[in-house]
Amino acid sequence: MEGRARSGRPRDGLGRPLPYGAEGVPRQPEGVVRSPEATLREAQRLLDAGMPFHAHEVFEDAWKSGPAGERDLWQGLAQLAVGLTHAARGNAAGGARLLLRGAARIAGLSDPYGIDVGGLVRWARALADRAGEVTDAADEAPRLLGE
Length: 147
Known about the structure:
By secondary structure, this protein is mainly alpha-helical. The protein has helices at residues 36-48, 52-65, 71-89, 92-106, 117-129, 137-140. α2 runs antiparallel to α3 (71-89) and α4 packs antiparallel against α5.
């Protein structure tokens, strides 16, 4: 499954395009096949660093390379990351919409790979209610695993 070609423009920590020649943050390499555990570790590291757009790219690799039966899991997690991205960018309506869509996609799952599905669904719904107040993605980063 191929998506759109990636732009060569540099990006900031929230994935916003910067002018050509500006110094951005390194992009996630595309098409990396990771174990589910490595996917969750890398995505959590990026979320904790305030880079949910980049965490979304890690989840995107997982849904494109993983088993078809796990597609809802990885797509739902990607939607949560993009929802946080939009909320942190000031797009409250778009952020809330994606947070709720991602929460709905994962809500029926039974904590695969130790993922705290119930906690993520509660986090997403609560953040959607106050998406217009989000100013720092790192401060709002969820915990993926029930630790």
